[in-house]
Amino acid sequence: MYDFQIDPADKPAMWRELNAAAGALTAGEPDPVANMANVSALLFETLPDVNWAGFYRNVDGELVLGPFQGRAACIRIPFGRGVCGAAAATLEPQLVDDVHAFPGHIACDAASRSELVVPVLDADGGLLALIDLDSPSVARFDREDEAGCLDLARRLSGALAGMAKMVSKG
Asked: What is the pTM of this model?
């Protein structure tokens, strides 16, 4: 149904096209899990040198694994623990060149060497979810990736707005 041909050679253009494609995938779809599933597939297909792309959801103040592409992952992560937990606790992106040098890193996949984690916030600044990208290469992600992923997180805020309702239903 969707066949996005996004060229990763020009990184700013790639992120613009990736964001536009994510908008097309999530337009009019109210289910946040479906939206995360499609966006994680898009990220995994589009981004070169990535071995994991997905989401962690904020469920009652704990990070719970959401839709992803890649190897099996840690299911629950406390705020403040590891790269994802740091992003959740601070609500700031985490751009980590070498995860093995990150204090408290949680090694869900021993092949991962670098990581980019970006919070997806609701309209009030509360944490809905995290976008988590892993690579088997040291220093794979840079500030252009961070900026593109932050744009994606802002775009997804509305597409994941139903997350708060899902959490409150238990």
From this structure: 0.92
